[in-house]
Amino acid sequence: MNIGTCKGAILAGLIALAGCDVGGGATNAPLRETAMANGSVTLVAPDGFCIDRRSLKADFALLARCDTLGDPDGAFGAPLGLITVSLTRSPADAPPITATAMQAALSDGTVLDKKETRDTVLLQVQGTEPARKGLSATHWRGAGQVGPHRIGLAIYGTDDSGAIGSEGGRILDQLMQRTRVRAATPVTALAIAPTTPD
């Protein structure tokens, strides 16, 4: 079996967003962690997910299940899903993140569930169906604080993916807790593979 080839269960929207190459393997090895915000934040992936290096910017990253990005042994039973991570600099006097404030800021959608852990708030939302065909209108989104940076999160999946259920909230919380811990630890070496061939 060609481990880099997308399986039939991965819909066109997942293929496009995760960078899966239909006819071949992923062109660059995925990452488990990477520096963002000019090195001031270290993003650490949750279990079974990897960071698509081709998506990386100083303030944005896309994560997908590791086997869809070329690491066949890294999925660990994780659900098919896509995670987006965005960073913004938060002023020192910014109000704390609360579920009430996040719900008030929703421009569309109904909140189905919520989780609050430390200074992270996660909402399960049923809203407008995403533009990417095949992705469910139900998803998780959230926000958290890592040092001076506010992190916006979302996880998307198909209607039959565990990513849109309670597991999706757990996955985002794990990402935040790992990233927070690493942000408080001096980074001496980052697990970033070279982007050019040897």
List the helices and strands and how they pair.
Elements: H1 12-18, E1 33-36, E2 41-44, E3 49-51, E4 60-65, E5 82-89, H2 99-105, E6 110-117, E7 120-126, E8 138-146, E9 149-156, H3 166-183
Descriptors:
198 residues, alpha+beta, Protein Transport Mog1p, Chain A, seven-stranded antiparallel β-sheet, two-stranded antiparallel ribbon, 16% helix, globular
Describe, in plain words, how this protein is organized in 3D:
The chain has 198 residues and is of the alpha+beta class. It has one domain (32-183): Mog1/PsbP, alpha/beta/alpha sandwich (Protein Transport Mog1p, Chain A, 3-Layer(aba) Sandwich). Helices cover 16% and strands 29% of the residues. The protein has three helices and nine strands. The protein has helices at residues 12-18, 99-105, 166-183, and strands spanning 33-36, 41-44, 49-51, 60-65, 82-89, 110-117, 120-126, 138-146, 149-156. The strands form two sheets. Strands 3-4-5-9-8-7-6 form a seven-stranded antiparallel β-sheet, sandwiched between helices. The longest helix has 18 residues, at 166-183. It is globular. It comes from Pseudosulfitobacter pseudonitzschiae. This is Dihydroxy-acid dehydratase.
